[in-house]
Amino acid sequence: MIELAKNHLKKVLEVCGANRNCEYYPCHFDGQVCLWCFCPFYPCEDEELGEYVERKDGTKVWSCMNCFWVHREEVATEILKEILELTKDKSIDEAIEFLDNHELMLEIKEKVKDKYPNR
Hints:
43% of the residues lie in helices and 7% in strands. It has helices at 3-16, 73-87, 92-99, 102-115; strands spanning 51-54, 60-63. InterPro entries: Zf-like (IPR007212).
């Protein structure tokens, strides 16, 4: 394998697999898929997946600390498939602008959650 391919494969594995090189790994569970390290649905406000917690200053913030759903391999992969299908005819900038719609992202979440419920 040429060096450029190795470097690219390393990036893909770090993003799509269990990134054991990350200083925070495992932040949810051993063997988790790290593709959605930063959840595209945040805040989803789905009480099966998270909850509002109180900060020291008394304000509330959505916590996904106990969310395992988005880190399951089949769920992470299905989310990516849905996003790629919706953006296949767009440039990266157009795709990001298109997906910067919280309601659309929550629709994707619900579609995937119907297929792969939180267990």
